[in-house]
Amino acid sequence: MNPEATPLADDACYLALKARDARFDGRFFTGVTSTGIYCRPVCSVKTPKRENCRFFGHAAQAENAGFRPCLRCRPELAPHSVVWSIQDASYILAHQAARLLDEPEAWTEVAPSVELLAAKLGISDRHVRRIFETQFGVSPMQYLQTRRLLTAKQLLADTALPVTQIALISGFASVRRFNAAFVGHYGLNPTQMRRQGATSPDTGITVRLGYRPPYDVAAMTGFFRKRQINAIEFVADGAGSMGLGRTFRVEVNGKVHAGWIHASFDESRCHVALRISDSLREVLPLVIRRLRAMLDLDADPQAINSVLHAAFPGGDGLRVPGAMDGYELAVRAVLGQQITVAAARTLAQRMVDKFGQPIETPWPALTRLFPAAAVLAQASGDALGQLGIVRQRQTAIVGIAQAVAEKRLQLHGGADVNATIAALKALRGIGDWTAEYIAMRALRWPDAFPSGDVALHKALGVQGLKNPAKEARLASLAWKPWRSYAVIRAWSGAMRNDADPPDAPQLIADGARAAGAGGTKGIQTT
């Protein structure tokens, strides 16, 4: 293991461990030499002695050093460590590679390998290995192996799925390889990880997903409630019942999987209980990944707030709402062009009522799926026009649906951001605002900035200037690489002196200073 791979401040980590500080959950793991076990900072066991602790930035590093995961705090429940930066190219590429390995949808047609990972990044496989091991202290395949094992461990602990199915769902080519890897890493047979009272498959599958506080749950559920489309989704944001449910469809390797999901927040434990229909069990890791993206569970508030808190002191707990289906989000974004949220919701409701496929669920509020891409790709102008959708948006919706149905357009967190934005803008009826909005919510790009947004101009106090979009972009340079979060905070009214709009010239000056300090550098993303 490369001791410089993760430059952690050990004393600071130990203090966070003693405090069981949930803000650091997933940002480091503690290996205890006296037990051979590694834990999350929030583990409830007795705090080990300082001299028995080793600290790792990633679970893969801890496992590579010979530690096995704690059965109490369960490292697989920790939020992922998502890093965005404008540092040197090697640093950026290494984290791009990790992001690709974390994204199931980047590998739906082929098994991941160093060679394919290098091809996606446009560099040599030797260079991938070198920069990855320098940054993370493990090889790309060791990193991936840990992700697979922790996924399997979570499914063994939380579900009653057969071991054979868990092995395949987790990404192993055979049960024999799965068993060998499990025993080799953890010294236990997979069935020994089973917990009593696991959810029975015929009543749905339930897993837990962690996040780091602060998290403004009310704001997140309120955002989705305001945009709720009946029959495909519902939001419960009453006292003690914060959560949401929806129908979901995904195609993997030519097979369509459809069903329902339900997510509820447990704020006292900083986790989300995700329940999904048995029909989605074969794509469970993908569903988990999409739900984490939809609720932005992997965000690191400490890193984000260090850049944004001064300008948005009231928004420390706000996250960027994502989407379970990037294609659906793109269609809804087009429907929302230059009209109110309520008007866009009305159009979307009409579309679901006319083109949505019926589905049976145990939830009376969930009776339809969002119209499939293949369906809208064949929709006529007359059929869409009868819903109140104007011609320009008809063209854009059909164009998006055709590109998705023909697999020319990928709208998920594993897609190449710059290439996808360019492909979106090449479609008729898709401009900069729509492309940036889709990048922010569907592609999970933390530095998206729809500079032409009128509500954003008002929040930044630039609406009366000659070129408000340009002035908004200049003002935003001080907030890189977290401009998506700045947009959400501005929309929510979380800016400083909210009753008195911020001084635009001052914001622009702040942005110009950020540019002089390197703030205009683009972030390479994959």
How is this structure best summarized?
This protein is an alpha+beta fold and 526 residues long.
Q: In words, what does this structure look like?
A:
The chain has helices at residues 10-19, 59-64, 89-102, 114-121, 125-136, 140-158, 163-169, 175-186, 217-226, 284-294, 301-308, 326-335, 341-355, 373-377, 381-385, 391-405, 417-425, 432-441, 454-460, 468-476, 483-492, 504-519, and strands spanning 29-32, 37-39, 53-56, 68-69, 205-210, 233-238, 241-252, 255-266, 271-276. It has 526 residues and is of the alpha+beta class. It starts with 9 loop residues before the first helix and ends in a 7-residue tail after the last helix.
Mean pLDDT: 86
- What is the oligomeric state here? single chain
Rg of Cα set: 23 Å
Secondary structure category: alpha+beta
Shape: globular
Task: Figure out the total of helices.
Answer: 22
The largest pleated sheet is described as: 5 strands, antiparallel
Q: What share of residues are in beta strands? A: 5-15%
Helix content: 40-55%
Query: Any low-confidence stretches, pLDDT <50, length ≥5?
Result: 1-6, 498-526
Number of strands: 9
Name the strands of the widest sheet in spatial order.
5-9-8-7-6
Distance between the termini: 27 Å
